[in-house]
Amino acid sequence: MIKKATIVATLGPSSNDENTVRAMVEAGMDVARLNFSHGTHDEHLARIHLVRHISEELQKPITILQDLQGPKLRVGNLPKEGVPLEAGQKIILAPTKSVHDMPNDQTITSIPMEVPNLVNSVAAGDRILLDDGLLELTTLKVGDDFIEAEVVLGGVLKSHKGVNLPGAALEIPALTKKDLKDLEFGLKSNIDAVAISFVQSADDIVRLRSAMQRLNPAKTNTPIIAKLERPRAMDNLESILEVADGVMVARGDLAVETSPSQVPIMQKRIIEAANQQAKIVITATQMLDSMIHNPRPTRAEASDVANAIFDGTDAVMLSGETAAGAYPVESVAMMSRIVKEAENNFPKWGQPQSQTHVSSMDDAVSITRAARELAQDRQVVCIAVFTQSGKTALLMSKARPPVPIIALTPEWRTYSRLGLYWGVTPFLVPYATSVESMLSHIEAALIANTELTPGQQVVVISGLPVGAMRPPNFTLLHTIGETLHP
After folding, report:
1. Number of domain units in the chain
2. Which amino acids are annotated catalytic?
């Protein structure tokens, strides 16, 4: 059984060697995520070269996703053993790099905070969460350069733990100086897509696109995946989808910023909205988290992955499981098995595909829907999409046809990006200038790389004239082996 949803796997210390990465690809990895919160440019470049080498060796396109760090709201430097905080305790938070720079006041604990504009972002009564929400504070007073707070949930706080300010309107740019340097490196190194952290509005995506134009004009159209981590992003979901190429359901930060009870509903809303707008959607965070240490996931994790498939996600993501876990290959293999089983039962338990609403491409959407219906009516073996930019393949993917989608492209950059699309198997073929040459390329690729035989039928969609950069306007029911010239 062919897997349709794609698997994004994060590379890291546990998946640095060639044998491991090759085994991960063979187990079902479609997208290699490079987390720029960790590692040097040299380390990431080595991973890029490794993935390209294995992709070429296995003749399988592996999309490389650069995940930018974004602004990190963190606690500053604390003693190695950490600072114990108890419920009811009063503390001072101040924007300084080190606890040793604090006033020497023995009556109150001072905590350094690496949070830009902290005192302008909260008011008395606001919640402040530390260490993924394990510790909770309530703001009592906001001064000119400090915050007085009371501990609600205590524990031991250590250096550089994350800070979350639920509900706060943070005036912090999504792109940092580090992100811009990393972006320039990534574009130069031919990454296939970029994920941007801390997105709050569509303006963040526009600024990233402008940065691409400035840093590397030839790569301006590199797909952008918006990571949805904050409630404000949910408020602006539709406008973000209008300008981004896809979204990531970043469930970890969403749970801390809102409530774990709200995350399943937000996940369904994001997936439905992305599918309606024909945008890529990745479901991420702790999907098989226990496999960081164990060879098998919990039953709840298996259900979580399956339910993301039933919701209609395009991709599911592994983070620490493959980057730092003890079982990176097994994690990908298990994810693949769960995905296949869920897809096998999708007709009974899955969410019916919502109607796609893309006003500027209504004709293209209609063509892909017609191809889906024709494929089902004629019981064809696949739908073959001839595409240069990949947009037709994405629209066909969003139509969720009951048969495999074969995407054929003469563009290497498009070929390497297609690994992210649901249900799409890409092939690199020569340029075509006529319908006859296009069909010839399609037949050659299908016969050489699949089990198709002469006499079987496929649905072909493309734009006319062939070779022009335009949306699809042409659908053909073609029989393999049929004479191409009258």
Report:
1. 3
2. 33, 74, 227, 285
